[in-house]
Amino acid sequence: xxxxxxxxxxxxxxxxxxxxxxxxxxxxxxxxxxxxxxxxxxxxxxxxxxxxxxxxxxxxxxxxxxxxxxxxxxxxxxxxxxxxxxxxxxxxxxxxxxxxxxxxxxxxxxxxxxxxxxxxxxxxxxxxxxxxxxxxxxxxxxxxxxxxxxxxxxxxx
Amino acid sequence: xxxxxxxxxxxxxxxxxxxxxxxxxxxxxxxxxxxxxxxxxxxxxxxxxxxxxxxxxxxxxxxxxxxxxxxxxxxxxxxxxxxxxxxxxxxxxxxxxxxxxxxxxxxxxxxxxxxxxxxxxxxxxxxxxxxxxxxxxxxxxxxxxxxxxxxxxxxxxxxxxxxxxxxxxxxxxxxxxxxxxxxxxxxxxxxxxxxxxxxxxxxxxxxxxxxxxxxxxxxxxxxxxxxxxxxxxxxxxxxxxxxxxxxxxx
Lengths: 157, 250
Description:
The complex is a heterodimer.
Chain A lengths: L1 H13 L11 E4 L4 E3 L7 E7 L4 H17 L4 E7 L4 H10 L6 E3 L5 H4 L7 E5 L5 E6 L5 H14 L1
Parallel strand pairs in A: 3-4, 4-5
Antiparallel strand pairs in A: 1-2, 1-5, 3-6, 6-7
Chain B lengths: L5 H32 L63 H32 L5 E8 L6 E9 L2 E7 L2 H8 L4 E7 L3 E12 L5 E12 L4 E10 L4 E8 L2
Parallel strand pairs in B: 1-7
Antiparallel strand pairs in B: 1-4, 2-3, 2-5, 5-6, 7-8
């Protein structure tokens, strides 16, 4: 029991916004269409924050793209959100990546703060009720399996 | 004698709501102990088939006699320990398959409570709006679209008295909803009585899919009542161009 409580405490510390409603976020996608996170209520939404100067972000976006292709029909939506001031670099980065989900650029300045982003890459998971449930910072190849396991659990809720 | 203002008129409503909230809490508090103390009030198991069968003559000697499983507190003398059902099982569901009368009554109470909560929430929402945006200062701006053949709305920026008060990006779904007759309240705020100026900048795709940006402005007089303004986007068929207008809500 103590072990469980300790684990819960560590998990709670991991992402301060866990359990809170996801802040609404709307921005223009690379394809010119605006995307609003709250429009995907009822789906499991993964929001991945990335930067054009971060190579690990590219790996994470590719992993999320593979996951989105597999679980998209089960109600999983992935949205990539750029946090750069340098829009040109962000666009260049986005166009060179071949992900199928929307990559948002020119996001409002308070986006990173609203979502408690302290480094990139970072992804957060929003559940079907629009509540922030989990966050993952950094990315390693083995994390893809962790993402799948976690997202499957959320999809099954 | 001064005439009562809108904010003064709200106070009796707030008191009434408070009384309702207290009444609701009292009702909820009274329902909960009844649920906890009355074993008959406990809801039946979700799956009656899954409930263990009551103890019978073949039950092991260690289990209490089957007769005791139906004993109630009123039947037993003071100080008698009432044996729980065999294996701690819940009492079997009635033969007819219908829930006991007590359960039905409890269910009705719960449903009534739920309805009260929804009603209360609705009234609190209205009250909140009345308090935050009293009618004598309230200004609301709505967006509507007609046809939309020559213009696909992408974003809207709103300025009142040279101060940006709203900036809204429309997703394709929202733009589609507007085309289907939806109306979007893009701004709700407070303004003092007097003359004000509203400027709206519309951005989107114009004829031939070209980037299109237009502005519209209106000087309006804010009176003592609430003011509703409408930003109306229509198609001017003869010119093959969209038209942007701001008018008082009708």
